[in-house]
Amino acid sequence: MTEQDKEIKLVVVGSIGLDTIETPAERREDVLGGSVSYACAAASFFTTAGMVGVVGDDFPAAHRRVYERFGIDLAGLQQVPGRTFRWSGVYETDMNTRRTLSTELNVFADFSPDLPAHYRGSPFYFLANISPELQLHVLAQASNPLFVAADTMDLWIETARTPLLELIAKVNMLTLNDSEARQLTGEQNLVRAAERLLELGPDYIAVKKGEHGCILFSAAGICVIPAFPLAAFSDPTGAGDTFAGGFMGCLAREGAVRDASVRRALAYGSVVASFGVQAFGLDRLLALEPDEIEQRLDAFRRMTSIA
Ligand code: AMP
Known about the structure:
Number of helices: 11
Largest sheet: 9 strands, mixed
Number of domains: 1
Distance between the termini: 50 Å
Radius of gyration: 18 Å
Number of strands: 13
Strand content: 15-25%
Shape: globular
CATH superfamily: Ribokinase
Bound molecules: adenosine monophosphate
Order of helices and strands: EEEHEHEEEEHEHHEHHEEEHHHH
Structural class: alpha/beta
């Protein structure tokens, strides 16, 4: 089967990075990361994901093979002259607070996300954290999207509010963390902040709360999804993207967006993210078996059911 024959159910666009990560226990250099890497790897447990991203000519062939092992479609992965995007960060002792030490945009600075022809008919899109102008550019290339989720961050709320509001009006779901929801709306109360965001157009607002999980707001009401409690974890980098990738992959597998499928996808997203943080980069996801996901989902069900 050629790349062109593969039916892409989910398109993911965002960053691909070589990360240097320091936790209280360990420091690792040039870890394969970026929002697209985490989201596509997580989604690959459920569906065929197509990656849209850019790397430089220094991008290790071994990292490309990692993507291939997940079965990610790489037709939208551009390799251009220059250095790959690099990011480094350090976690405090409690692993909740992270400081960015450096960001080198490199080839990511001139990224133009163009969808290969066989991505354009995909029903599901995850527009991970890149500028809202680029997210809009991707959306404009989608011929008949069924469900589009977009992530954002404080940088774009501060520097690109107008295109961000234009994007929000066009997507089905917006994911952002609690402080960003407050920053974007000026509302300190998260329920009111989500109500304001729903008024801007999306059907769903997913407010991420780090180790406390996620709250989903929609016309159907509020759904609270905890993070799976772990006694130990190694590296929280990319947890939000892993969660979103698992969520979108699961929805794409079901092929329909109903209240029940959205709730189930949220639970799968949370479970896959809990595996992701158990090792650096994609290491734990590379070793993950579908059975392990189902077993942890059963445990998650028992933990979250009331009477
Ligand atoms: P998260 O833990 O969800 O913030 O995601 C971490 C990932 O985002 C890392 O793997 C980085 O390579 C990537 N990243 C860090 N800063 C940026 C940025 N300004 N734009 C895009 N991706 C970034």
